[in-house]
Amino acid sequence: MKVIEHIAQAKDTLISFEILPPLKGKSIDSIYDHLDPLMAFKPAFINVTYHRSEHMFKKKADGSFEKVEIRKRPGTVGICAAIMNHYNVDAVPHLICGGFSREETENALIDLAFLGIDNVLVLRGDAPKNETFFEADPHGHGYAIELLDQVVHMNNGVYLEDDLQGGVKTNFCIGVAGYPEKHFEAPNMQTDLGHLKRKVENGADYIVTQMFFDNQKFFDFVNKCREMGITVPIIPGLKPITSKKQMSMLPRIFHVDLPTELSSEILKCKTDKEVEQVGTEWLIQQSKELKAFGVPVLHYYTLGKPGVVRKAVEAIS
Q1: Which of 27, 58, 149, 296 has its CB 3.0 to 4.6 Å from that of 7, i.e. a possible disulfide?
Q2: 3 state DSSP class of 298
Q3: Calpha distance 104→201 (Å, rounded)
Q4: Calpha distance 150→71 (Å, rounded)
């Protein structure tokens, strides 16, 4: 079932989770162990992130170094199929621009269609960890809207090969990312919202936001979207804080602010266990306020902390 169909049929706020593929060499059991405690909450869907390849330098026998490309977390398509088969729940694979050619993207979409996966979340993706700026694959997309357009074309039966006639139309429900505190590369919020509106006009069915810790920023974001004529569902993305180092890491990597009240409480903590308690309570309060606001789905970035997310969902169920 499509994400927007889940939302249309829901009588209350839905729950969804997001997970990482395991590191190369790990089994699918690590995914099941992660999700098993969360499945009691009957999530409407589960997102699975996609990870671009990274460049590393390996020392050769002669002492020189060779630049090699590796993908540390492969398997998104297979994981989505396994989740749907194992749990009978819809899976939403992420598709990213970085590190993928247009042909590789098309082949992934064909595989997803064959597997009966109805949903995708299209993202530009970030620069590799060892690089400052995002650079597109020479044969890929530089912007999420270009990737979105490729999915829309396939939904219309248009493939990359010009001479391919009568291509079967795919039927993907397409999600895109939104940024309540604006994308860090956008010069201002108005410009960022303009980009988002164009994605919706080009065929995006719903929006999932970057994590945030101040609900008022989400409320303001939704209001600005509606004022611009963006009418598709907007799903808030939520992440628990579980360690003191996240106070500096989250703003640096994800370009989000922590409210003064939250940071003050974290600074009082002497251990990460205490921080996790503060973070859990904050997540519960965020979830309750967002549910009262009437969000269609509460989307939790579990990312290795299913226990904290479970406590939050239990508190609002």
Answers
A1: 296
A2: strand
A3: 25
A4: 23
Structure tokens at 28: 């699918």
Residue 18 sits at φ, ψ, to 5 deg, of -130, 135
- Burial pattern 88-119, b for ≥16 Cβ within 10 A else e, equals ebbbbbbbbbbbbebeebbebbeebbebebbb
Dihedral (CA of 161, 166, 171, 173) sign: positive
Type of residue numbered 24:
K
Question: Which tokens hold the place of 235?
Answer: 């799903």
Q: Which two tokens stand for residue 92?
A: 């939403």
> Residue 130: which H helix or E strand, with range?
none
- What Rg, from alpha-carbon coordinates, does the chain have? 20
Q: Per-residue pLDDT for the chain (317 aa), expressed as one digit of tens each?
A: 999 999 999 999 999 999 999 989 899 999 999 999 999 999 999 999 997 656 556 666 776 666 666 667 788 999 999 999 999 999 999 999 987 899 999 999 999 999 999 999 999 876 566 666 667 777 889 899 999 999 999 999 999 998 888 889 999 999 999 999 999 999 999 999 999 999 999 999 999 999 999 999 999 999 999 999 999 999 999 999 999 999 999 999 899 999 999 999 999 999 999 999 999 999 999 999 999 999 999 999 998 788 899 999 999 98
The distance in angstroms from the start CA to the end CA of the chain is: 23
**Closest among 87, 92, 42 to 313, alpha carbons compared:** 42
Written as one string, the DSSP assignment of 154-193 is: HHTT--S-TT--SPPP---EEEEEE-TT--TTSSSHHHHH
